[in-house]
Write a structure and sequence with these properties.
The complex is a heterodimer of chains A (193) and B (459). Chain A has 5 helices and 11 strands. With 193 residues, chain A is of the alpha/beta class. In chain A, strands 1-11-6-3-2 form a 5-stranded parallel β-sheet. Chain A has a 4-stranded mixed β-sheet with strand order 7-4-5-8. Chain A is globular and about 65 Å long. Chain A starts with a helix and ends with a strand. Chain B is of the alpha/beta class and 459 residues long. Chain B is globular, with a radius of gyration of 26 Å. The model of chain B has no long low-confidence stretch (mean pLDDT 95). Classes of the chains: A alpha/beta (193), B alpha/beta (459). Chains A and B meet through α1, α4, α5, β8 and β9 of A and α2, α3, α4, α8 and α10 of B.
């Protein structure tokens, strides 16, 4: 018998767990009067910052945030700062020297300062992690209250990868001191347009 | 070695013990603050418990569905009945792909299976990439906590370790300096690795993908630079629906560290371009829990570590005092259920205060289970000899009221006049760190009888 059969048979034979119905969770969870404001408050507590702007001023704003960034990639319409197309890279290792990644966020979650990033048109998922800094652009109308609303908007019909990003990478593994910039980006901004 | 003996080593350093206690209590307080911010918190815990119990009641169905849907996404699924088979499967995948160096993100399962030494013996270099895990790997120590693996260490210890292995300045123990030194060192490892191994926080049956939560971004770096990604999971990690993740992602980080969510909650539904993704589903005595009415809820654990942070015994005895790979209340349950002989002292490393059950995000009856395990351990003859004899003697005495009264009377007379050298002799284990209470003149029974007589007399 294969281990697969052995495991499944053992479960079938010996399972004693009483059947409990799966809960139907609808219209559940905390909501906020001002979702944008809540998002801004929360992301600050996790080392990030959210800025309200508009499409016309994106270039100017990002340049001000990262005046020294040399290698920049972007998949956001209206941003002309990019000088590197990460989709041209055959190998994700070629993204190693990226100073700044400017990427689209699908929507933001007010309760926890997270942004859902999927970018089906992005070839290398390491883009969100290997760049020294990250700027995520989200439409100002795309904010949900909580994770229940968030998962209603997500699907994985095709092969894919998606991640909730809440602030820059961080760690508190040394004496519980929070240090921003573990393995992913050292800083990050969410810009609502 | 039993828990009490190992704890003795830890508490020998009084200052460090109190420091450890405070560090974990700080995390517990952050958890309280985060959970109080969610008015529907208790309902969420109820949902989590129901979803998990539902899944466990039909685990065969959800695992098969998961496999089917993962296959559709181009993920190869493997099944391992125990730790040895798990290690062999991982090694065979690595060997097939001619892997020399692996970057690994946190996985208590691979710790449980002792994967690192297994691979190292076969000439594969394994680099743990979570900062805490890397620190203890360099020190050749096991993790002392499942979320905060290096919580037992001070920054000066880390400075010394990094100085020896990463050539940092030995006198600089600034956490930011140390973290960024590790970042530079590990970035090189990420870029050189031929494969990434990750754990799994949740496996979604209906979509066939897995979710990994980290703050550092190391699971994503490790699984999206090399062509090969192997995700290792215990079979209890499966959940039915994508929407169930809403419940668990809201509970996990808030319970673990008091954060509203981890920095990264990554959903893997297939390999990177031109790459391969494998998932290894491991039993290693997990299915046995399904059979046990008293202990089946232990499989509902989502590994947040809240029960450790709140446990008065864990906080003061440290993770290394537990003989099982997972310490604290949940580890004591898992460990002593899987191997009663080896871990027989763990359910006794508990005051039965019930704090663990109060903070558990999936509402596991932790204190009840620990209480049950004490009795099972006693019944099956794994109780420590000293404890067994004294329990038997006490039981016998209590079954004989006249003798009990007499013994009490004698003790109340004799104990106050005994010199300390006799009172605190070696057989008085209880008195080793404690002052004996002052003996009252009369027992409760005598006082009660006197009261009753008075009442009778006044009638």
């Amino acid at each position: 018998m294969s281990s697969r059969e052995l495991i499944l048979n053992t479960i079938r034979k010996s399972n004693n767990v009483e059947k409990v119905p799966l809960p139907h969770i609808e219209e559940f969870g905390i909501t906020f009067e001002n979702k944008t404001q809540k998002f801004q408050e929360v992301i600050q507590t996790v080392g990030g910052e959210a800025i309200l702007s508009n499409k016309e001023h994106l270039d100017e704003l990002i340049q001000k945030l990262y005046p020294n960034a040399k290698l920049i990639s972007s998949n956001v319409d209206g941003v002309t700062l990019a000088n590197f197309d990460s989709n041209d890279a055959q190998n994700p290792h070629e993204l190693e020297k990226l100073d700044l990644a400017i990427v689209k966020g699908e929507f933001a979650v007010a309760e926890n300062g997270a942004v859902w990033i999927k970018n089906t048109d992005n070839r290398h998922r390491v883009l969100y992690f290997i760049a020294e800094n990250i700027v995520i652009i989200v439409n100002k109308n795309d904010i949900v209250n909580n994770m229940h609303e968030a998962y209603d908007k997500i699907s994985f019909e095709n092969t894919g990868y998606g991640t909730f990003v809440s602030g820059p990478s961080k760690t508190a593994d040394i004496e519980q001191s929070l240090v921003i910039g573990a393995h992913g980006p050292k800083s990050g901004y969410v810009i609502f347009i | 070695m039993n828990h009490a003996l190992k704890a003795k080593e830890f508490v020998a350093n009084d200052e460090r013990m109190h420091w450890h206690d405070k560090a974990l209590w700080f995390v517990r307080e952050k958890r309280d603050l985060a959970s109080k911010g969610i008015p529907e918190w208790e309902q969420l815990r109820e949902y989590a418990s129901n979803i998990k119990s539902h899944t466990m009641s039909q685990l065969d169905y959800y695992l098969e569905e998961f496999e089917k849907n993962a296959n559709k996404k181009g993920i190869k699924v493997h099944w391992a009945k125990d730790a040895i088979e798990h290690n062999a499967i991982v090694y065979s995948i690595l060997k097939e792909n001619k892997v020399k160096k692996v970057v690994k993100s946190k996985s208590m399962l691979t710790e449980e299976c002792h994967l690192n030494p297994y691979l190292e013996q076969r000439d594969i270099e394994v680099i743990d990439t979570d900062l805490g895990e890397r620190i203890i790997q360099l020190r050749n120590e096991p993790p002392s906590h499942i979320v905060l693996p290096a919580i037992h260490l001070k920054k000066e210890d880390v400075a010394q370790t990094f100085h020896e292995h990463l050539n940092t300045d030995a006198s600089n123990s600034d956490p930011e300096y140390l973290t960024h030194s590790a970042r530079d060192h590990l970035r090189k490892e990420f870029l050189e690795a031929d494969a990434g191994i990750t754990g799994v926080n949740f496996a979604i049956s209906e979509t066939g993908g897995v979710v990994v939560c980290t703050n550092e971004g190391n699971a994503d770096m490790g699984s999206s630079l090399p062509k090969l990604h192997i995700a290792c999971m215990g079979l209890e990690k499966v959940i039915p629906r994508l929407e169930d993740l809403a419940v668990f992602t809201r509970l996990l980080a808030r319970s673990a560290t008091g954060q509203p969510i981890t920095s990264y909650t990554s959903h893997f539904h297939g390999p990177i371009e031109g790459g391969e993704m494998h998932i290894v589903i491991v039993d290693n005595k997990r299915t046995q829990f399904l059979e046990s009415e008293k202990h089946q809820q232990a499989l509902n654990c989502i590994r947040c570590g809240a029960c450790m942070n709140t446990c008065p015994v864990y906080r003061r005895s440290g993770g290394h005092s537990y003989s099982y790979v997972i310490p604290g209340p949940i580890g004591s349950i898992l460990g002593s259920f899987k191997d009663k002989e080896q871990n027989s002292s763990l359910p006794f490393a508990c005051t039965l205060c019930g704090s663990c059950s109060n903070v558990c995000p999936s509402n596991i009856d932790l204190d009840k289970q620990l209480y049950n395990q004490r009795q099972e351990i006693t019944k099956e003859g794994y109780l420590d000899k000293k404890k067994r004899i004294s329990m038997k003697a006490t039981a016998w005495l209590m079954e004989h009221p006249t003798l009990l009264n007499l013994a009490g009377k004698a003790a109340r007379k004799i104990v106050p006049i005994l010199p300390d050298s006799i009172l605190y002799n070696k057989s008085n284990v209880w008195g080793e760190h404690r002052q004996m209470p002052k003996m009252p003149k009369n027992s409760f029974k005598e006082l009660y009888q006197k009261e009753q007589e008075k009442k009778q007399g006044s009638k």
